[in-house]
């Protein structure tokens, strides 16, 4: 089979690269792709397969946001002090029968069900490499996203991560920041990682409305989520108030309790507010935080930089805008020392946000 042949080629390439990585020049793969490292050639067919079999032909839909979500849930089960999981090792995929039992991983079972057959068919990637490559490729399908890095060569995971390592929407800001700090992230990096909510949706906060997005532009990687979390809430999108959500400003949109609390807490409010309408800031900080997240627990000296296999995302068309009928008067700002940017308002009645396609 094609992937079996790729596996044999990969072993040879990995050996050659690890011996002589310092002087490896850019190479042209048999597929015609150009890469900085011969070992990465084996990944271009994998990227094509992910796009066709997992991401519906390179769409920024449910599967793309799910791939990003599971990469976070996998990697964050780690502590710089030891005693927790192996970090970005794919344990949530390899030991899914254990980790899917954790409350914080609600809804991850659907992601595993979609990814696991593709992972098994590819065959030669470890769970960690598959999972974090899928996250980078899926994110690249969303206009406005940064081109994430991808490091290749993670060993197979040794064990499942322990429970209670993934922050939940019901957690206090203190608990969230402490968990991030234990994994090695400062408060500003935690907010940067939450940029992922721009393309995300909730499936289990209110089970009656799966696929409910967190902003009105869920198909675009933009700062709209940082704006809309700051707007005054009026209603819940589904079956009344559920644990982990607060009033949302728009029909069909969910606002997580944790997002709102982080936007208002003095430790993080200015970081949150600074993201609004600053696409470059969000892109650069998210890319940097993800680069750190996706190698947690790994010996990076043994990994190969294959970032050039990740597709280049389409640029952000912009700009973000207040949803119709909203303006500065509807903002709940907790960082008064930071000047709020000038943002136009969409004309017309307030919109109803549609579920994320594919949910």
Write the layout of secondary structure elements.
Elements: H1 2-20, E1 27-28, E2 34-35, H2 43-54, H3 62-75, H4 91-94, H5 96-99, H6 108-122, H7 127-140, E3 151-152, H8 173-182, H9 187-193, E4 201-202, E5 212-213, H10 224-228, E6 245-246, E7 255-256, H11 257-264, H12 269-275, H13 279-293, E8 304-305
Antiparallel strand pairs: 1-2, 3-8, 4-5, 6-7
Helix pairs in contact: 2-6, 3-6, 3-7, 9-13
Describe the structure.
The chain is mainly alpha-helical and 359 residues long. The chain folds into 2 domains: 184 residues, Peroxidase, domain 1 (Orthogonal Bundle), CATH 1.10.520.10; 121 residues, Peroxidase, domain 2. It is built from 13 helices and 8 strands. The chain has a two-stranded antiparallel sheet. It has a two-stranded antiparallel sheet with strand order 3-8. A hairpin with a 5-residue loop joins strand 1 and strand 2. Helix 9 crosses helix 13. The longest helix has 19 residues. The chain is globular and about 55 Å long. The two termini are 33 Å apart. About 4% of the residues have low confidence.
CATH topology of the largest domain: Peroxidase, domain 1
Q: Tell me, what's the shape?
A: globular
Q: What's the number of structural domains? A: 2
Structural class, by secondary structure, is mainly alpha
This entry's quaternary arrangement is single chain
- One letter per element, helices H and strands E, the order comes to HEEHHHHHHEHHEEHEEHHHE
CATH top level label of the largest domain = Mainly Alpha
Signal peptide: 1-21
Main location: secreted
Binding site for Ca(2+) 1: 74, 87, 89, 91
GO molecular function: heme binding; metal ion binding; peroxidase activity
